[in-house]
Amino acid sequence: MSFWKKTRPIVGLAPMDGITDAPMRQITARYGQPEVIFTEFVNVEYAAAQPNKLFNRFWYSSDQRPIVVQLSGVNPDLFYQFALIAAELGFDGIDINMGCPAKSVTARGGGAKLIGNKKLVEKLILSVNKGLDDWQKGKGLDSLDKNLFLALEKTRQKNRQWGGVNKAKKSPPALSIKTRLGIDRPLVEDWLNFLLSLPIETLIVHGRLVSQGHSGLVDWVSLSRAADFAGRENKAFIGNGGIGSFREGEEVCQKYNLDGVLIGRGALGNPWVFTNQKVAKEEKLLVMMEHARCFVDLFGEDNFVVLRKHLAWYAAGFPGAKKLRVELVRTSCLSEVEKIVNHFYLIFN
Length: 349
Ligand SMILES: Cc1cc2nc3c(=O)[nH]c(=O)nc-3n(C[C@H](O)[C@H](O)[C@H](O)COP(=O)(O)O)c2cc1C
Known about the structure:
By secondary structure, the chain is α/β, with parallel strands linked by helices. It has two domains: about 5-275, TIM Barrel; about 280-349, Non-ribosomal Peptide Synthetase Peptidyl Carrier Protein, Chain A, CATH 1.10.1200. The chain is built from 14 helices and eight strands. An eight-stranded parallel beta sheet has the order 1-8-7-6-5-4-3-2. Strand 7, helix 10 and strand 8 (about 260-265) form a beta-alpha-beta unit. Helix 8 (about 190-195) runs parallel beside helix 9 (about 220-230) and helix 11 (about 280-300) packs antiparallel against helix 14. The protein is globular and about 60 Å long. It starts with 9 loop residues before the first strand and ends with a helix. Flavin mononucleotide binds near residues 16, 70, 97 and 243.
């Protein structure tokens, strides 16, 4: 039985490009223990062209289970290959991104551009399922491109050494799709019910239209209608959009009969969003430092600029936080962050 069937309600960490990287997920797993954790999307076309650059999106630790890797793109052959890679790396789930409105993703027909492109969507799902079938039969890996195979081996080693991920699992990853309610109007029957008729285990829907971007009302009533249909198809249905606490997530699931929700922006600098726990500034700053150390451990100080936004997200909700944020977003190494935090304590304690 896959993890999608085990608990109710599921309150998990949503995929966020440039944000839910391995260190962020590690800290979220440690302090929030959500029921499921998503990686950022991995674009199969870019990852195939530049495996050395993008395979760090596959780094994870066993603490992060159940972990779902999200794939985006449009090339069925590459989806086949990346299904094999995800299975071989031991991910608990594979999710296909059919909702991202970013131009870099939609320009080639992926993400939100897949909404309504039923022919291509069917092909992608078929390819992933074929990859998972072949993997279970011990086939397919020899068909991988040589560079992809080398990147897979390196990643496997990294996950073993850094993340304590020992053996590939025997069962294949559970397949899900994450999408939006529609482009400029809700498409429950035309789109969501179509997706639910495909051989997937779970459907995740951000309850906003593509035209709404990342703000505006979340249409829980339409999500609830799709959830009824999912129930009849014996599939899990997860809603998403604007959830700010674990308690709110539970309430929404109960009210709209959903199997779970994902939290995105509510988890920024706030792994405790999954616990109902209120934390003091001391703990926030300690965990911020732990996040920074984990980041440097994995990615080195050369990439410190990527971490700065996370530091700023932790520095919120207490006296002096604004001034602290201004200083944190200018840092370029761990020792600078330590100095700033120590100075902050001298002034504010
Ligand atoms: C910066 C950012 C990056 C995102 N990246 C992804 C992504 O890689 N894949 C995806 O399916 N959704 C992505 N999303 C959408 C979120 O997963 C989620 O659906 C959306 O933020 C709504 O949830 P929230 O209101 O809890 O944040 C992203 C959202 C944001 C704000």
